[in-house]
Amino acid sequence: MTDATQSAAIAKPKAAGAQQKFLAFASLIVLLIFFSLASPNFLQTSNILAILQATSVNGVLAIAATLVIITGGIDLSVGTLMTFTAVIAGVVLTYMGLPLPLGILAAIGAGAGCGFISGSLVARMKIPPFIATLGMMLILKGLSLVISGTKPIYFNDTPSFPLISTGSLIGSVFPAMPVPNGVLILFVLALFIGWILSKTVLGRYCYALGSNEEAVRLSGVNTDAWKIAIYALAGGICGIAGLLIASRLNSAQPALGLGYELDAIAAVVIGGTSLAGGRGSVLGTIIGALIMGVLLNGLRIMSVAQEWQTVVTGLIIIAAVYADMLRRRKAAS
Higher confidence at residue 110 or residue 255? Predict the structure, then answer.
């Protein structure tokens, strides 16, 4: 293969990824215009902040899913893992009465530990990611109910806990910009994970595993260890999502979580990350999460029934996956 051919082969998927991000951003603008024309309440500041607040949880989960999907895997447990880490925070803060920093560390640590187990199942035991994370999803759902006694755990004894998501560090400095802390955490996390993917060895191996894992293994790299590290990092990010949703509700709801993985995966695919692995970006994922947030909020404002909102979400997932298949076929031709 000549240098010119190699350069063309590398440039093609990059161009396709940039095109997908542009299309996703254009779709977001179109949705904003449509719903603003359909309802005068849509562009109110309180509603925009509500969209961003709701997107913060799904966006954090989508960032976790992005890491795994870039490697060519899938993680169906992100939703129930979020719930499990919220329950762990409840146990540490409410049942054990420990300080807030320990509750935060416990939630993130529990998420990373569960991610480590999922990664080990996939990398060491060679269980397909779909099956391994499906099993983990059910295990975590059951454990959340068992540990909590099937009852919500409230954080009334930790009054500063809700501020994690609903407080406004920016608003305290600039009162005209009451951006919730949950949104700030989302964008800071997005910048950090984007830096990891583009500037670190972990990021390079993340893309390499999704592109051609066997070639990476034959070059002498311990692919199993790197894959486990990526799943553990994704799990820790789910712990952050658990803290965000628990602080927003001021409670850990053990029955919550199922269905969040679908919205997260939809946001990832809409943002241009390939389900085949090897291509994707955090920026695209954030755009995809905003599209999901705007769409669901707009449908709700237009009084569309909840069941039809679910139908629309399913259609979006199918359309996004099909678009990804078309992109891969075009890139291969």
Answer: 110
